[in-house]
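Most newcomers find our protein records easier to grasp once they have seen one. Read left to right, the backbone structure tokens trace the chain's path through space. Once this layout is familiar, the rest of the handout is easier to follow. The record below serves as our worked example for the rest of this section:


***
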Amino acid sequence: MKYIVHLNKFHGPFDLLFYLIESNEVDIYDIPISEITEQYIGYVDAIQDLDMDVTSEFILMASTLLEIKSKMLLPRKEGSEDPREDLVSQLLEYKVFKGVSELLMVKEEKEKEFVGKPAEEIQYDSSLNEQLLFEGISVYDLMYTFQELLKNCREDEPKEYTFEIQKDEFTITDCMEIINEKLGLLKKISIREIFSSNKSRKFIVAVFLSILEMSKLKNLKLVQDYTFGEIYLIKAA
């Protein structure tokens, strides 16, 4: 198989890996590691054939995939850890950061449309926040809250390992329903309240993605009373 390589399209090993998973339309929770590894190494080899510098990160990821592939070929005892588990967790987190990065790129492109003015007349371009129904907060504030939640999430949560990684208990659609249900009882809830009963890393990622999606659909409004304060969710009128 021949590979057409455009390095400027990928911003790191996870970007390339995520691209391969999406282009092959495979389940991120059940990655066909042998097929993906072969394609990934094909890209890395193509870069080397072009006499281009391959960063250590890309080589390290290729080595990691080969290690996972070798472990998948070995017989494993019932209940043992799936070798793909850590990789899946990292990919889920990368998916969130990628989504936020795309929002910031949209903001940057919109700001390019404005001509500079004297300092005293410069106005902050809040078009992206308006588009996402953000009031008094920015994408950076939301990202900061997400990072804090991940930092404090329960690391010792029990795991049940099987031969195949089971799909997460909550999908983005499920989380959107949870948020709508809570907002049906209360007019205003903080983001942290959503995690009162479940503080797992995967649940935090799913909720964060659902908040972004609901905001883009203008079903949800995000407000913040003061800088670095609690972020609240309000059902859009």
